[in-house]
């Protein structure tokens, strides 16, 4: 992380970790409660909560204003990873250096854990005060069949080939971009943003989501080298073209952020997105 994020991010991550640790206190049986907490405790960048906090602060809000929204975003994101890892989807055996949920437990447990994480996201948002209904609607749209789920549907071939840049962008705007855009918008809403600031943060989140995924394609270039494998920006644009596109999208995000009163954390997150190594 950059110097700015090394100072800014850890206390905010600690707050969202504490909020997540409080989830599933009444879950039962014990094996289910343990399995629900397992994917939340395996680390991760917590990028979506950090974007949510940064957006809230950029419009004059406090970390506490965005805490429930940030935790809900991470719960929904984690559910999507648990289900993505299942044999019927990506069939992954490891996530963040740990066995995936269906490997650590079993496939049925992983399905139930994903369901529980998704449901808990909206239970947490219900505690978000007078803006709860607006935040619930925002997360539902971003995570549903017009957002993240739509991107996942395209990813498994439900919309035909994804070999063009336009098709890849449409896929990633759903699968990855929708939640990052929602993180920026939900932080803004939690911080009491006006319509103009919300529009700016929508633009920021859209650009950040594309920068994040394009850079991911660059990081995954070696494993995606097989011509028979899934399409990627590296295959379409080459490594140099992919890096250039990631930085172009990051600069779009930075330009949007700088139109806000307190953009520093948003700017640092955009830079981190295209400088990270994992």
Largest sheet: 2 strands, antiparallel
Count of helical segments? 12
> H/E element string?
HHHHEEHHHHHHHH
Into which percent range does the helicity of residues fall? 55-70%
Low-confidence stretches: none
Structural overview:
By secondary structure, the protein is mainly alpha-helical. It has one domain: Farnesyl Diphosphate Synthase, CATH 1.10.600. It contains 12 helices and 2 strands. Helix 1 packs across helix 4, helix 3 crosses helix 9 and helix 8 packs antiparallel against helix 9. It is globular. The model has no long low-confidence stretch (mean pLDDT 93).
Task: Compile the SSE list and pairings.
Elements: H1 3-21, H2 30-37, H3 47-58, H4 63-84, E1 94-95, E2 98-99, H5 101-104, H6 107-125, H7 132-143, H8 148-155, H9 165-190, H10 195-219, H11 233-257, H12 264-275
Antiparallel strand pairs: 1-2
Which features does this protein show?
69% helix, globular, mainly alpha, Farnesyl Diphosphate Synthase, 12 helices, 278 residues
Question: How would you sum up this structure in a few lines?
Answer:
By secondary structure, this protein is mostly helical.
């Amino acid at each position: 992380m950059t110097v700015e994020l090394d100072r800014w991010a850890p206390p905010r991550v600690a707050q969202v970790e504490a909020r997540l640790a409080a989830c599933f206190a009444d879950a039962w049986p014990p094996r289910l409660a343990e399995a629900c907490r397992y994917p939340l405790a395996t680390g991760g960048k917590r990028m979506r909560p950090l974007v949510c906090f940064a957006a809230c602060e950029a419009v004059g809000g406090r970390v506490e204003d965005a805490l429930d929204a940030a935790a809900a975003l991470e719960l929904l994101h984690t559910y999507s990873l648990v289900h993505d890892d299942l044999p019927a989807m990506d069939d992954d055996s490891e996530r963040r250096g740990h066995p995936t949920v269906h490997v650590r437990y079993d496939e049925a447990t992983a399905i139930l854990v994903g369901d529980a994480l998704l449901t808990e996201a909206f239970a947490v948002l219900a505690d978000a005060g007078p803006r709860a209904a607006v935040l619930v609607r925002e997360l539902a749209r971003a995570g549903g069949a017009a957002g993240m789920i739509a991107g996942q549907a395209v990813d498994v071939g439900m919309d035909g080939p994804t070999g063009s840049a336009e098709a890849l962008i449409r896929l990633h705007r759903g699968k990855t971009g929708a939640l990052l855009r929602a993180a920026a918008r939900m932080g803004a809403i939690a911080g009491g943003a006006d319509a103009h600031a919300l529009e700016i943060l929508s633009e920021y989140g859209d650009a950040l989501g594309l920068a994040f995924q394009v850079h991911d394609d660059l990081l995954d270039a070696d494993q995606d080298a097989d011509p028979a494998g899934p399409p990627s920006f590296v295959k379409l644009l080459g490594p140099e073209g992919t890096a250039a596109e990631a930085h172009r999208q990051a600069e779009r995000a930075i330009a949007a952020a700088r139109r806000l009163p307190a953009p520093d954390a948003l700017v640092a997150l955009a830079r981190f997105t295209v400088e990270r190594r994992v």
